[in-house]
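Entry 14. Two folds queued back to back today. First construct below, sequence then structure tokens.
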Amino acid sequence: MKEIFQSGQDSATLTMEADSLIQNPKKRKLNEEQGIDGNYKCFGNLHEVFLRHILSFLPIKDAVRTSVLSRRWEFLWTSNPNLNFGEPMPAKRTLLMNFVERVLYLRDSPDIKEFVLDFDVQSDACRVKSWITAAVRRNVQILNIRLWDLRGQFSLPRCVFTCDTLTSFFLDMRCILKVPPLICFSNLKVLSIENVTFSDDYTTQQLLSGLPVLESLYFKKCRWGCRKVLSISAPKLRYLNIIEDDMQNPSDCQFMIFGATLKVFVYTGELFNEYCLCDSLSLESVDIEAACDVEWPSDERARQVAYRIFKVLIAIPNVKDLKLYGNAYEALAHAAELLPKMPIFNNLWYLKLGSLDLECAALLKILQNSPCLETLKILQIDPISDREKADIILDPMPSCFLSHLTRIKVYSYDGKNDLYAVKILLKKAIALDEMVICFEESLEENLEMQDYLYKQLIKLPKGSHNCEIVFK
């Protein structure tokens, strides 16, 4: 997010300078016929439409500064469609607040394309609400509100929830969200809600029911209270991203996600909630990061996580792109009875793993049930505990290793615990065309060690005569 006051600069100077420009528009102008480099006259002769377009890319403080260039530039900034107001130093808070209100008052354009407000509200809730209302009344299209230090109750202006020009709405504030009875975002395509607490089922369902054209939905570190069931249903929803981080107050809610048009589902969290992907046959890409502790607090909790991951997997048989991070597949080992029920992923061609454990029965089952897998990417490789049983690793052999798996990419390779696993992959993936090895960051400048690892790897036996080992 661009901010009106950038780090390393004196925010007081910037605020007072922009403020003084608005208060005194008759400050001395540079002669528009005198270009410092001889090119200013040509630049100044551009059509006003182009000049306004150029100014639209500048932070509002810089756009205001251009008013000193010449009489022609004096009020060009007042039509800037993008208004970005960031938090100043506490001592200059009043100056910024006055600056925001003057910018909104002096605008000569009826429309605002993007309104960004990153502000420490404190006891000025009424003024902050008036700014947001002003943006809505000027047909704002992108509304990005990040509010901090909310003292007491705070509710957004009602007009926000019926703004028919709004296409993207980003809301980040640590408070209980209160919504009016009437909600209709008739043109809203992107909605992102962060750090908000949903107080009751009615509030949440009211919000999610007024999104007829929504395409992308983000819930980041929200709190769901004591609700037991939450339904997410938007007729045109294509992308859903849920990030949870509430270890101190974990909820146990069942999310019913109806996604007839849903293409991408991304989840990061502790899986304190259950996710049911209903009518999700169109899902093409799923990204699950189960950020769970390696040492489970109890067997019951471990099995709960396993069942919740399994519930997601059985709902996505048509997935093409699957990413499993954290303990997303390792957790299934705590509910071995689920493995025989694992679905067949006939369309899966790309699989990315946070870690590769070739001794994990759950991973073996996923590979065996992915007959058309073409690309396997591995962020790190777990050491093999019993090398004497290497012959039974990947047994029975996944069919994709014999026919479709043509590319494997290994990240963070150091040649220690991961060499033996790479050896097994090279030997058993007989359809392999390429294995890409990316060295660990600590080896980037150690050319001697890289050369040693290179010579070590190219000597390994390969199941595929066409396989090339590429080092990056």
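Second construct, same run, same settings:
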Amino acid sequence: MCDINDSCLKLTVKWNGKEYDIPEFSPSDSVAMLKIAIENATGVRPDRQKLLNVKFQGKVATDNYTLAELNLKPNLKIMMMGSLEEAIQGALARPECGDDVVNDLDLDDEEVDVENQEIYLAKINKRVRDYKINVLNEPRPGKKLLVLDIDYTLFDHRSVAEKGYELMRPFLHEFLASAYVDYDIVIWSATGMKWIEEKMKLLGVATHQNYKIMFYLDYLAMITVHTAKYGTIDVKPLGVIWGKYPQYSSKNTIMFDDIRRNFIMNPKSGLKIRPFRQAHLNRDKDRELVHLSTYLLDIAQYCDDFDTLNHKKWEKYKPDRKSHSASKRKAEDSSPSSHKE
């Protein structure tokens, strides 16, 4: 979205004989973010959109290009072709290895050092100032923070089913109820807010009695960063939450996402979850959330600083219960209340 000192672009998309105004964009934003905004306005998924006059050197621009690279004219009217899902419900589900698979980037800390760059910290600060959060449930004192993606993390959003509920990842409610004991929970999806709200209602997350979601974040809370190796990508900086709620930090926050690039602004806080695809085949054998429940419980009880963890090796994590118990007893013995007069 449009940042300070940027020349904002006001765009309109024409589709099915109607025109839709799109929120103002910064030249540094990507085509991928533009497509998400168009989905929010029209309901047409980004992978269904064909933007006829959004081009680079005469060819249709791919998602990684920035709007500045395309030299778009102010007040451009974008011509789009694309179908709503309702119009193609009879189509067969696409295969696992088709164009449905997101190209996750193999990002290493040595290759992409962006988390401390001033240009991106400034973007985060603007999101902290301007992004409005609708708090569903207030944060609870002493709780850690769990930030969750939706698509392919909690929900198979591409497979076909008679009921959307059938696409829910196994043990979702048990996982969220277990996590809620130690963590405040935030849902962050790279889609529009209305779709997040609809999915949470569909899955029964919004109204569950055994846990509460603190708030939702959508694509407008994301920022665009540029990497030398992979070009422009859109990411989810946890600094947006930390800036608004300073009781949370990298020391007590963990984020699950099936796409590694989403947490390159906070690599130590991100855990890449195995994507949940082809729900009809994997519903009876996926146990990812069961195992992750144990991990969340262990680190909440036995780790005082999440910065010391390597989430890439979460499956091998073994808490040092004896050391933690000894440290806790020592702290209790040294407290003023433990000494008799």
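Quick look at the second one. The first strand starts at residue 9 and ends at 15. Residues 89-103 have pLDDT under 50 and may be disordered.
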